[in-house]
Amino acid sequence: MTYWRIDPGKTLPPHRHQNEQIGYVIHGELTAILETSEVPLRPGDSYAFLSQEYHGAENRGDRPAVGIGVLSPPRSEPEWGTD
């Protein structure tokens, strides 16, 4: 399990990976970027991505977005960087 934070104006670049992924937004707001849509995520929302499902996130708000995430199988480092 990992604790994540995306600051205002920052983006988690869209990507794919072999891991399945679930998570939960603790506070702040995000926009999940999917292959054909965007989904708002607010505190208390959860998300799930299948293996190889295209996804990313943007914090378009004015507060940091914070949450937890779980990858299966686990991995220690992401394959991308944040801008």
Give short descriptive properties of this protein.
83 residues; Jelly Rolls; four-stranded antiparallel beta sheet; 52% strand
Summarize the structure.
The chain is built from no helices and eight strands. The protein has 83 residues and is mainly β. It is globular.
What would you note in describing this structure?
By secondary structure, this protein is mostly beta strands. It has one domain: Sandwich (Jelly Rolls), CATH 2.60.120. It has no helices and eight strands. The strands form two sheets. A four-stranded antiparallel β-sheet has the order 1-8-3-6, with no helix packed on it. Strands 2-7-4-5 form a four-stranded antiparallel β-sheet, with no helix packed on it. The radius of gyration is 12 Å and the shape is globular. The model has no long low-confidence stretch (mean pLDDT 92).
